[in-house]
Design brief:
alpha+beta; Muramoyl-pentapeptide Carboxypeptidase, domain 2; 2 domains; six-stranded mixed beta sheet; two-stranded antiparallel ribbon; 8 strands; 44% helix; 10% strand; globular; disordered N terminus; disordered C terminus; binds zinc ion
Length: 273
C-alpha cells in the first residue's frame, strides 16, 4: 500500500514540475514577444520587425502550426522572393520581417509544383518566382488601411480583410516568371503590385494598341497564365501576378483564415513546436 502511495506522490510531483516548466516557457515566449514588438503607432506593423532576423523565424513556426507548408519543401526548384519581407513594395515597408519562405496550404503547394512542371516542359530555363503566398489577415488589414482611395477603387487592388482574401487562407499566390540564366524576372510590362490599369489582364489588348505594353510583355503574361491555369489556378481581372487556387466559398469550406501572430498564437505556435 505504502509503495502505491509513493508512486502516487511522485506522479503528482512530476505533474507539478511539468506545469512549472510550461509556465517558464510562457514567460520566455512573452519576453520574446516584447523584444519583437517594434515601437510604432500602427497596431499591425508592430507585430513584425525587420531586424535582426531571428532563427528560426516565429512566422515559420506559426504557419507550420496552422498546417501550412513551405513550398520549397514541396518543390525545391521554385524561386521565392517575398516582396512584403522587403521594402520593395507599394507600402515601402517590410511587413514580414524575418520571413524568407513562402507558405501555402498543402494542396495549393502541390498545384504550384505542377505549374512549375508545365513551365519546365515548355522552357527548362524558366522558373516560377513567387512574390507572396499566405498573407495573414492582420497584414491584409494593414494594407487595406494604408491605401488611401475610395473603397470601390481600393477593392481592385486589395481584398477587403473583413471578407478575407484568398491569400489569408494560404490559397493564392503572387507570382511571375524567372529566367535562370540571366537571374532576372521576365518583363511583364509593370512592376509587381503596380496600381494602375497597365497591370490589368483585361486591358492588355488596349494597352498593346496604345503602345503602353509590347507584344513580348503580353506573351510573357500569357505564358504565366497558361502554366498556372493548366495547374488549375484562376487569374483575376486586375493583377497579372495574382492567382487563386479556388473560389472564396470553397476556401471557407476547406481552410481557416490565417489571422496572424498575437501573443496567444505565438504561445500556441511555440509550445506546439
Ligand atoms: Zn495577390
Amino acid at each position: 500500500m505504502l509503495k502505491y502511495y509513493f508512486i502516487y506522490i511522485s506522479i503528482i510531483i512530476s505533474f507539478l514540475n511539468s506545469c512549472n516548466f510550461k509556465k517558464k516557457d510562457n514567460q520566455e515566449v512573452n519576453s520574446t514577444i516584447k523584444e519583437k514588438i517594434k515601437k510604432d503607432s500602427t497596431t499591425y506593423i508592430s507585430i513584425v520587425d525587420s531586424s535582426p532576423k531571428p532563427s528560426p523565424c516565429i512566422w515559420d513556426t506559426y504557419f507550420k502550426s496552422e498546417g501550412l507548408v513551405n513550398i520549397q519543401k514541396v518543390d525545391s526548384t521554385l524561386q521565392v522572393e517575398l516582396k512584403y519581407s522587403t521594402e520593395d513594395n507599394f507600402m515601402q515597408r517590410d511587413m514580414y520581417g524575418c520571413l524568407d519562405s513562402c507558405y501555402l496550404q498543402k494542396d495549393v503547394a502541390y498545384k504550384l509544383k505542377n505549374a512549375q512542371k508545365h513551365l519546365k516542359s515548355i522552357d527548362s530555363n524558366l522558373s516560377l518566382l513567387v512574390y507572396d503566398g499566405v498573407r495573414p489577415r492582420a497584414i491584409q488589414q494593414y494594407m487595406w488601411d494604408i491605401l488611401d482611395m475610395p473603397i470601390n477603387e481600393k477593392v481592385k487592388f486589395v481584398s477587403n480583410p473583413k471578407r478575407g482574401s484568398l491569400h489569408n487562407f494560404g490559397a493564392a499566390v503572387d507570382i511571375t516568371l524567372y529566367n535562370l540564366t540571366t537571374q532576372k524576372a521576365l518583363d511583364m510590362g509593370t512592376p509587381y503590385d503596380y496600381i494602375g490599369v497597365e497591370a490589368w489582364p483585361t486591358k492588355e489588348r488596349l494597352m498593346l494598341e496604345n503602345g503602353v505594353l509590347n507584344e513580348q510583355q503580353i506573351n510573357n503574361r500569357k505564358l504565366l497564365r497558361k502554366v498556372m491555369i493548366k495547374a488549375k489556378f484562376f487569374n483575376i481581372q486586375t493583377e497579372w501576378w495574382h492567382f487563386n487556387s479556388c473560389y472564396r466559398k470553397k476556401a471557407y469550406e476547406l481552410y481557416s483564415i490565417i489571422e496572424g501572430i498575437d501573443s496567444t498564437l505565438i504561445k500556441k505556435a511555440t509550445l506546439n513546436k
